[in-house]
Amino acid sequence: MSPAMNRKITALALPLGITALAWVLFFKWETAAASFIAKVDYSAYIIFLIGFLVSYRFNRSGIFYTLTVLMLCRLWTVNRPAASGGAIDPDTIYNSICFLIPLNIVLFSLLRERGILTSGGRGRAGIILLQVLFVVAAALPGGEDIAGLLAKNVFPPGFTGAHPVPQPALPVFLLSFAALVYGHLSGRFFSMANYYAGVLPAIFAALYYRDHQPAGPVFFSASGIILLVALLQDSYSKAYLDELTGLPGRRALKEELLKLGGTYAIAMLDIDFFKKFNDTHGHHVGDQVLKLVGSIIKDVGGGGKAYRYGGEEFTIIFPGKKTGEAIPYLEKLRETIAKRPFILRGKDRPAKKPDEVKPGGKPAKKLHITVSIGVSEKSEKHKTADEVVKAADTSLYKAKKNGRNRVEAL
Q1: Which CATH class is domain 250-345+365-409?
Q2: 171-202: pLDDT as tens digits
Q3: Per-residue pLDDT tens over the stretch 351-380
Q4: Of 164, 244, 166, 265, whose CA–CA distance to 210 is shortest?
Q5: How far apart, in whole angstroms, are the C-alpha atoms of residue 13 and residue 18?
Q6: pLDDT for 393 beyond 90
Q7: What's 241's DSSP letter?
Q8: Structural domain boundaries of the chain?
Q9: Pairing, β 264-271 against β 371-377
């Protein structure tokens, strides 16, 4: 398994771990202290309120409106009638919620961020309002056809066992979860898919155990915590990660340099002839080159941590290592980049793959990228991190002067 896939699985484990802890708390509920139980009763509302404030402050409409849907669901589970008999059928409302919640979570993960109070944000609010009207219409007299579809048994008798979640909602939950996990692992379509994937089983549990008092507070609180963590991670990424390469940026590097102590080596890496590459093929191709190099540098090995320094330059810090110990990893990195061909997309190539590929097309042009690397370590001559960076930069200049595509140490 590649290091990149390991990172994605780890990122998925955090939200799912929060949901797992909620399950443990739910099953240990009877042994919990009375004072703790009283606090948890209102915890979901407090967490949702914090989530509303933070998502509004950062203008994150996906999280904001997901919290809106979950808050409406939580309010209904607390205030729902015990049985049918009024004008509105509570069972139909419950069945509608079970069916719509996973679809909403997938939808808000798919939609691009447009802000909360913008036309795009108001459109999301309109989607929620239309769903509320749909649910009410289905639950009122005259909505029996829709109510019947939502409650219809679609599986053979005994296939799913006895539980309150309507059968049509089960595949919706399962497919939504699978889509979010796939979206996260493949890096396609979805935004913060790992966190939304963690929310789904928590909400399913809250709906599944609707008649058990602790289910609502525990599982809705867990879903709110997951979304709060998503907000914090998103804010961190915007502040510290380079958007193009996904590597920590200059700000993160400066903070890391202040923390360094003891033995360490620092390498400066530069893409050879990058300006010429940009001028010849265009900045959009240059961006793809930076992405490719960044993805390789990220897995440098040897405990090294990569940063985007700026432009076509990158920095790698090796805590606890001297120059001689870091060089083998840098040489391997240089060779990996040099051997990885960069396929230049033809100008006449369609944006989407056609159903029928015509033979005789021009072969794709392969370009080879090389990098020059300079490395230095903390020593009597270079006592501070800034001095080591400057020494590594001098080594980098030496590597370029000596023919490029090489590692030089000072």
Answers
A1: alpha beta
A2: 999 999 999 999 999 887 677 899 999 999 99
A3: 455 555 555 555 567 788 999 999 999 999
A4: 164
A5: 9
A6: yes
A7: B
A8: 3-240, 250-345+365-409
A9: antiparallel
